[in-house]
Design goal:
132 residues, 4-stranded antiparallel sheet, single chain, mainly beta, elongated, 3-stranded mixed sheet
Length: 132
């Protein structure tokens, strides 16, 4: 199983790269108020509570990068970050024993371009709807 480790994450630390069905980036706001999200959806088998077998369902890793703050901006665009996550997930899909650092999202001062600490993402695992 290929895993991406988010060393600087506030919550959640590991993202699986197996059984991925979709990777989607989103954003709201701009500049100092921009929030970028990466949603990675997985198809998984879930055992039925009544013991009658299993069904296919979706789980989602919801990664959120908080706004960079006053007078700051991200060093990458939403599209660039989405591409980095797509490449990372694809390269580790089906891998064995691999744990690789996940893509980071840098922050810089808008006026001077001085690099600040990377954005600290949060990771939440969400349950989705059944697959058709």
């Amino acid at each position: 199983m290929g895993l991406l480790k988010m060393s600087n994450a506030a919550t959640g630390k590991v993202v699986s790269c197996d059984n991925v069905v979709d990777v989607v980036a989103g954003s709201s706001g701009s500049g100092a108020t921009e929030v970028i999200t990466i949603d990675i959806s997985y198809g998984v088998a879930v055992d039925m509570a009544d013991g009658s077998g299993s069904k296919s369902a979706l789980l989602k890793s919801a990664i959120t990068y908080a706004a960079p703050g006053s007078s700051n901006e991200y060093t990458s665009t939403k599209a660039q970050l989405e591409e980095e996550w797509l490449k990372a997930v694809a390269s580790l899909s089906g891998a064995t024993g691999s744990i690789v650092e996940a893509p980071q999202l840098g922050v810089k001062v808008t006026a001077t371009g001085v690099q600040l600490a990377d954005s600290v993402p949060t990771l939440v695992i969400k349950h989705g709807t059944e697959l058709a």
